[in-house]
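Sequence in, structure out. Go.
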Amino acid sequence: MQVTARSVTSTARRAQILDATIALVAEEGFGKATFARIAEKAGLSSTRLISYHFAGKDDLVTALVDHVITGIGEHVGGRVMAETTARGRLRAYIEGVVTYADAHRAPMSALLQVAMSATADGGTSAPSDTSHLERILEDGQRQGEMRDFDAGVMATTVQRAVEVVPFRLQAEPDLDCTAYAAELIELFDRATRADA
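Output:
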């Protein structure tokens, strides 16, 4: 039975289950994230506590993805909205995604594991939504801050450049994310600015 109106206790239990799922997937991989292993990781007495809060593994995975995406959106969105220029918003976006990936390694790793699992199981990985980046770039072009280019191509290129950060962090845990973000910011500023 799934809970529809969540009490404080129910919300806390869901968060506990999500945190354990994220940690387990990040540490051991998506394939090991059975309800039994998640219950063990969360310190729950029974898998029924997971089933009470989530209709099944698909529901739990959807909640995990939503949780991580919401976290990224909150972290990056505030930074982007604080900027008054398109170039500033592009810089804030790049820096925000890279710093989020650095500070939230387990959730980002879990998100990647889920995405890679979907692709490996014959599904297709949903393309990242780049409409927010396209709007920033198109606004920069309208305002004369940025040169004429295909905003869709540039947005996709920016998105792919920041999406690789969690992979780099897995391979290079000591990666200097501040320097990495600065290099991407310089690269894309030169690639897009009107006076380049």
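Check: Residues 102 and 190 are 24 Å apart (CA to CA). The radius of gyration is 19 Å.
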